Amino acid sequence: MEKAKVYFLKLNDIGKIKDLLPQFNDKLGIKVHFGEPGNDAFISAKLIKKIAAMVNNHPLVETSVLYKSKRRQANTHREVALEHGFDFAPIDFLDGEEGDDSLVVFIDKYKHNRSYYLGEGLQKYQSLLLVSHFKGHGSAGFGGAIKNVGMGLASRRGKLALHASIKHKVTKDECIGCSKCIENCPVDAIQLDDNKKAVIDQKVCISCSKCISVCPEGAIHIPWSSTGNNVLGERIAEYALAASKKRQCFYINFLTNIVPKCDCIGIKQERMTDDIGILLSTDPVAIDQASYDAVCKQCEDFKKFDGKAQLEHGQEIGLGTREYELINK
User: Fold this and answer.
1) For 71-75, what is the mean pLDDT?
2) CB 267: neighbour CB atoms within 10 A?
3) pTM (predicted TM-score)
4) Whose CA, among 62, 202, 303, 308, lies 20 to 30 Å from 211?
């Protein structure tokens, strides 16, 4: 496979991004991360604003998160975005107000799934400009372009499918029998037992994650640890392939505020190394490989965040190549 071109810019040369961007059509979405409340490592709105202006401020697109957070629903997620300064372009939450709106995509090259649940609104966009913050991640190895498109464009049902290898259950000691989960289950898979505790029929449950979202006590837990890190990385790569299928995609990775954990962590984190710069490419595997290599050159400790499963499986299924040519601009 031919080496992919990955371009490097210094941070003070951000204006040069415009010269490297492809010609997008009018159906363009700019995929960003608005930052979890309490986190200060995500790409700042000031930087995103400069990039958005280069493409006529097309909509900023995102999806809801799976865990308990203001970013779980579109209305409060929008509040977070505006509080963090993302007020310069339209905001489109692709999986709807409650995170329930899914577009099902099928791919041929898969290992773990056949069906991939993405934000339904994604079908409006023929092109994507994915602006990603490169950092460590406790489960996926690192978070970069592949994770931003794969995990970041999945609907809440898709995010549960990514993380869980077993179905979720009700923790009875925490259940108060309010029946919110029963009222909101789309397939009537939940009922109260003789002790007025909710029980999920695993054979009927479709793992849509609605019950997780509506439970006021948090008694229905996401089975995070049921999936190994390598499997999660491979699933992310497959979701990235599904989300980018038949779309023009261009990737920008910011190698700044490099921290050990995801931007979804609502705390301030110590930086692992100095800011490095900006990478750009049409290849998500190549740009993440180049990002990892660049960070490791400055920070030996970052080698433990290798994200090998994303990179190897991404190359195997045709998402991109790990072989790249780094071009300084």
Assistant:
1) 93
2) 11
3) 0.92
4) 62
